[in-house]
């Protein structure tokens, strides 16, 4: 595997797009932060070529996020090129993430190790439930303290890293969401009742993330309504496809109800501290 340059960018984008369901973070980070560094989510690509065609792409961010898109499993090469670097987490296709974790000699007992069903949907197939009386508003127009409290609760429930200050991280998240305009609030009778969001975006594809309904308001279809309305807005702007990985059986049912179909497995591994890769 060799380190890519800007000249390789068109080929990398085409290759990752051909594996879009498990490449959204890599592509979104590339589009937003680039390859030149200077931002924690700026990316580097390690590539393998065969006869002028890309066969493998291993994406690594400045902060140590790894996103393998390596169908033939060149894990020994990956360990060589990453020797001496730091890895904080690995996300992607379920089997590839586990194989890369093992090849890099990373501890198997990561504080966060989630295996989640992967779903996709062409937005032409979006099924919008009864949303009478419901509406979406930008996150910036909602009650800030409540939104931060919801996000802190979301992180504690779905991203429980040991020792993390959930409130402080929630403040950072909400500020980033507002700046990027990626998340919305669902209102009913003048009150916010759920939050929906995209955690990775491209001109024609979005990946859903950060969906939250407070426990007292669950099991009333609010999450599916929020997501459906958000996707309808995206579709009106030219987005054609949506991707998500679901955190619970209840979430699976909600997403299936609006048209999502399971296509695979997505694995998320995070460590509390960056792990050094030894060659």
Question: Main traits of this protein?
Answer:
279 residues, alpha+beta, Aminopeptidase, 2 domains, twelve-stranded mixed beta sheet, 8 helices, 12 strands, 33% helix, globular
Order of helices and strands: EHHEEEHEHEEHHEEEHEHE
Q: What does the oligomeric state look like here?
A: single chain
Overall structural domain count: 2
* Number of E-type strands: 12
Secondary structure class reads alpha+beta
Low-confidence stretches: none
> Any idea what the CATH superfamily of the largest domain is called?
Gcn5-related N-acetyltransferase (GNAT)
Q: Whole-Å distance between the termini?
A: 14 Å
The overall average pLDDT, rounded, is 94
Strand arrangement, major sheet: 1-2-3-4-5-12-6-11-10-9-8-7
Proportion of strand residues: 25-35%
And the CATH topology of the largest domain? Aminopeptidase
Largest sheet: 12 strands, mixed
- Contiguous helical run count: 8
The rough form would be described as globular
Q: Helicity level, as a percent range?
A: 25-40%
The CATH C-level class name of the largest domain: Alpha Beta
CATH architecture of the largest domain: 3-Layer(aba) Sandwich
């Amino acid at each position: 595997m060799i380190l890519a340059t800007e000249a390789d960018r068109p080929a990398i984008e085409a290759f990752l797009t051909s594996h879009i369901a498990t490449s959204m973070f890599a592509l979104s980070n590339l589009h937003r932060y680039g390859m030149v560094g200077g931002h924690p989510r700026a990316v580097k690509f390690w590539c393998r070529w065969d006869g002028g065609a890309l066969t493998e792409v291993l994406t690594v961010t400045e902060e140590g996020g790894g996103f393998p898109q390596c169908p033939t499993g060149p894990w020994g090469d990956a360990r060589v090129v990453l020797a001496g670097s730091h890895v904080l987490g690995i996300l992607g296709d379920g089997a590839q993430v586990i194989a890369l974790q093992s090849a890099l000699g990373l501890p198997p007992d990561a504080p966060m190790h989630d295996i989640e069903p992967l779903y996709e949907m062409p937005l032409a197939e979006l099924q919008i439930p009864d949303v009478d009386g419901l509406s979406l508003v930008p996150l910036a127009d909602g009650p800030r303290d409540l939104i931060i409290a919801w996000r802190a609760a979301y992180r504690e429930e779905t991203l429980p890293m040991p020792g993390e200050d959930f409130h402080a991280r929630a403040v950072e998240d909400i500020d980033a969401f507002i700046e990027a305009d990626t998340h919305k609030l669902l209102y009913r009778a003048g009150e916010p009742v759920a939050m929906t969001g995209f955690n990775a975006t491209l001109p024609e594809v979005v990946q859903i993330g950060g969906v939250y309904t407070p426990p007292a308001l669950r099991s009333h279809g609010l999450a599916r309504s929020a997501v459906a309305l958000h996707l309808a807005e995206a579709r009106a702007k030219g987005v054609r496809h949506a991707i998500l990985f679901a955190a619970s059986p209840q979430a699976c049912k909600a997403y299936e109800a609006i048209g999502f179909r399971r296509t695979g497995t997505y694995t998320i591994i995070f460590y509390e501290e960056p792990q050094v890769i030894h060659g």
